[in-house]
Amino acid sequence: MTAARVHVTERYRAKLRLADLDCRTYNGLRGRGALYAAGMRGPMPTEIITESREKMHTRKQMKTAAKKALKQHYFLFLLLCLAASLLAGELVMSGGSGRSGGGLAEDMTPQTRVTFTDAIATSFTEFVVDVAEGKKEDREQRIREKEGSYAEEAEREGGEIFGRSRGVFASVVNKLASGAYLMTLLVGLRSLVGTDEAAVVVLLLGALALLCLFQIFVVGVCRTVVIRMFLEGRCYEKVPGQRIWFLLRVKKWCHVAVANFVTGLFLFLWGLTLIGGVIKAYSYHLVPYLLAENPSMKTLDAISLSRRLMDGHKWECFVLELSFLGWDLLGILTFGVSNILFATPYKTAVMAEYYARLRSLGIRNRVEGAGLLNDRYLFAHADKYTLKTEYADVDRECGAQSPKLPELKGISGFLAETFGVAVGQGKEIQALEEERSRRFLLEYDRKALEGQIYPTRLHPVPEKRKRKWVVSLNYLRCYSVWSVILMFFALSFVGWLWEVGLHLIADGAFVNRGVLHGPWLPIYGTGSVMMLLLLNRFRRKPVLEFLLAIALCGCVEYFTSVYLEYVHDGTRWWDYTGYFLNLHGRICAEGLLVFGIGGMAIVYVLAPFLDGLLRRLPSGLLIGVGILLLCLFAADQVYSSGHPNEGKGITDYQSRIQMQPQIQTQIQIQIQTREVRIV
């Protein structure tokens, strides 16, 4: 082989590596002399793309690859899509339309969809128009009729398990869709500004501001984060849960939010042209994916690059989306359950594969701006030499003998190892926590060194790992007895605020929830502490921790309901009959889901944060406050055993249900009387 040919070969090897092409493709091209014919100038000709390479990216093969990634990361992808769907307002309820439960995958595609968000927006528009035209009383009447029709329809179409006639979630959705909250807000604003017209203006401005901020800084950014984790999952064996914070670590959260907002603004303006809106929706389809790969990309650059990559592929993308029609029909037949459990994460995984294909074609064809697609290790594993060079310190530390963990003896050692509770041996406990934290971070870097997870040190935008913040939120820590006691009361108070706030929103009245009279609900504190202590050994496995938290909270709530009903002669302090997926009216799916998500927040964020604050307090003050709260709690227990907190809004569920038709009739009579007087 001549020196010139060797030179050409080596240069083309480098180009092929940059384009993420494998050596097998190179060898096939070299055998036909394509490299020699192509030369070193001008764009890479499309003739060198072999037929076998093209066939690797058919729809069938993309879907096969998506199923493989979904199988490997099923629980993580399921939680990501569920959280994104809830944030986007696409809640899944029985009796909904076929588009309900489409979730993230539909939100990421430019297809038209009907969700609860659309229903709320439509209701808001109609409400403002009616009030502006002086039809306030008619709107009030229609609101009451709508709320009643929602409950009646749910009871008529759904069974006992799939009920939607009761429950905070169902009530909130019904009130939002009917406009009841808007009417309440308008009355309050009118009392401040004096006229209905001014109140409508304030209402419009406030609603638009809140909606825009939420969509820009939460929903849009969340969508980009989920896409990033799906892209990492298609290439790597594991995707750590803390990758959801990657935009914060590269300090691009606000930049991505603004980029998504500008893209949405352009789509809105193009939507005014009708046909142009549909075309541009597909043209800008890859913007979230581009930002997920390179969050430092400028907004206009991302939009332009998305247009170029989608050029000639819009119809192909439409057909790919149309191929999911069978899953949409299955979602209708299963009331959205199949969408939640499989279809939504599956669609998202397929679209991630589709982006990888278009990205590869764009780089190969030297599309203008393709140099911005610079995160090569998001789509291909780094070679061992590169990893060892970048993670040399981790390689040395893993090779060295780790220091032995401090030994804790006796009952204190058993409590620390099993339940994560520190009793005495303060210095030994602190040394144990520090060593565990160091090993936890080292384990993360070791997985990157071995190619199991994405190597964050090779990311084009340097990530800022705030070591001090990570250590302060170290969830592998041990908690002191007094810290556990104070967290019990703090979380019991948070639970009390949660339920009081939900009833204040749903019923418009303050209700002191719980069997006790004080501002605490012990079931929340007990469940939180049990998750913190009994699930101590599972903190390194977030998915298993989440499932066990749901099971534990479900058992606690169910048997607490049985116990209270037995002790207090059949009186119930909560009844989930009519809720979606309930069991004997004692537990329900929406409550357990909230408990599971809340349990994750408590174990991994809230409890370490509270414990860090409590450790700064003097030990004497900590013990004094703990003893005082224990005395007040014991006194409340003794008093409530003979005089439990019961009555209106707490235990009289049946009477409230029976009184609703009478109350509605009285309201209608009052409205008719008022109309007669006006005439």
Question: Could you explain how this protein is built, in words?
Answer:
The chain is built from 31 helices and four strands. With 679 residues, the protein is mainly alpha-helical. The chain has five domains: 3-56; 61-109 and 221-378, no CATH class; 116-212, no CATH class; 384-450, no CATH class; 479-646, no CATH class. The strands form two sheets. A two-stranded parallel sheet has the order 1-2. Strands 3-4 form a two-stranded antiparallel ribbon. Strand 3 (582-583) and strand 4 form a beta hairpin. It is globular and about 75 Å long. Mean pLDDT is 74; it is low at 1-56, 91-120, 158-164, 466-471, 651-664 and 669-679.
Major β-sheet annotation: 2 strands, parallel
Number of extended strands: 4
The gross shape turns out to be globular
What structural class should be given to the helix and strand makeup? Answer: mainly alpha
Tell me roughly what share of residues is in helical segments.
55-70%
Proportion of strand residues? under 5%
Domain module tally: 5
- List low-confidence stretches: 1-56, 91-120, 158-164, 466-471, 651-664, 669-679
- The whole-angstrom Rg is 29 Å
**Helical region count?**
31
Neighbour order of strands in the largest sheet: 1-2
Mean pLDDT: 74
Ends apart, CA distance between termini: 103 Å
